[in-house]
Amino acid sequence: MPSVTGAAAATTSAIAPTGSPSPSPALAVPSESESPAPSLRPASSYPLVNSCNPASVPSAIAVTTPASGADSSIALHVPILMYHRIVPIALAGDSLRGLVVPPETFAAQLDALAGAGWRTITMATLANDLQARRRPPARTFVITIDDGWDDGYTYALPILQKHGFVATYFVIAGRIDLPSFLSSAHLQALVAAGDEIGDHTMDHVSLPSQKPPQLTYEIDAAAARIAQVTGRWPESLAYPSGGVDNEVVAAVAACQELRVAVIEERLVTEKPETTGKPGASQSPGTVATAAPEVSETWTDRFVVPRLRVSPTTMPANLVAELDRYATG
Ligand SMILES: [Zn+2]
After folding, report:
1. CB within 5 A of ion ligand 1: which residues?
2. Does residue 276 belong to any structural domain of this protein?
């Protein structure tokens, strides 16, 4: 079960983005007809839909894909940053400190990147670019925020908006509307602000240990729940705790709406002795312990690596790290 920190009550007062949808009558059953806009009924009140067939949630907008380009081997080098919590340490409860980036640190990191000319796209846009074999502009990067904590709305969103940035939020579908996690209203406001809501499974379990029916539930039912709540099918997935194998990749690929998936750590360049304990093996001021290979191809789109950003990542070092991949 998620740990509930009590941070929600302390942090939800701050910001009401202009994109926030006005609440519809409480607990109204969504009309099946005209509008794709979802109501604000609790996520848990929706029926379980164990399918990625967009017809199974007709109220949600299905994913549209571009025409495929000719060269399937084209590699893009768009850095994908991985964050978890953007919240003051004092409000972070028992979250691992390596996953907690204070808002002022997040703002300083984004200030530096914006100042160096970096601009964001979402994972969905990156998937489009990969499929169309289209190179995004130089100095394009992706911000991902995992696990669906409500500080992604209260703290991260206003900082993103100040910079004109968007992010992909990987939410745990089974925790939507729980205390300290993003609510249905939060998710709808994020979508309205141009952010993407991605699939981070139903229960945040390690996928390689799951039997096929449970795999489908964790991946597909979570995608459908996000579609029910936000009115949009997710296009991207993040594997919990970086756990992935060939069966898991096949299960994700079988969800027709999911077009790209990211791992939590770089897959190839991590040393074996690196246990993956967040923050455990990083020296201050570094993004990563080894020279990363930031690369995405359509062929390998379900094992896309990310760069973990820690609370001690100095903004200048982050810029230097990303500038290694700047082209043009
Ligand atoms: Zn996670």
Report:
1. 146-147, 240
2. no
